[in-house]
Design goal:
It holds the Pfam family Dabb. This protein is an alpha+beta fold. Helices cover 45% and strands 27% of the residues. Helix 4 crosses helix 5.
């Protein structure tokens, strides 16, 4: 299992309707076929850290991660989600014993960045 946990905060100018749209897009992304589980909600960590919400998704393996990264629902969701975020932090972990899992994940992300340069631009615009 590969788990991706995102902590985030909305930009100050995002309306309540905008926040609702982002959370709905995240829920759709967390529900794609390649996701084994997913949830979206309030971040319960220290408010001083500056995060208000969290997104967590698990995928079974590297093949599922590749499908997840390129799923049309995920791609469409990123265009709604990323422009609305003021902060974003990611933690990824796995129970896969393969010592190359991290490198394989990195390669999948690099390939997506190459294929979708707007995705990279949007990600780089969000501070951690």
């Amino acid at each position: 299992m590969i788990v991706n946990l995102l902590r985030f905060r909305f930009r100050d100018d995002v309306t309540e309707a905008g926040r609702d749209a982002v959370l709905a897009a995240m829920r759709r992304t967390a529900g794609v076929e390649s996701a084994a589980f997913g949830t979206v909600g309030r971040d319960l960590g220290d408010p001083a850290e500056g995060y208000t919400h969290a997104y967590c998704v698990g995928v079974a393996d590297i093949a599922a991660l590749e499908r997840y990264l390129h799923d049309p629902v995920h791609l469409a969701g990123d265009d709604v989600i990323l422009p609305s975020l003021a902060r974003l932090s990611a933690v990824r972990f796995t129970d896969d014993a393969d010592p190359e899992t991290g490198a394989k994940m990195g390669e999948l992300v690099r390939a997506k960045l190459e294929k979708y340069p707007d995705w990279e631009r949007q990600l780089k615009a969000i501070p951690a």
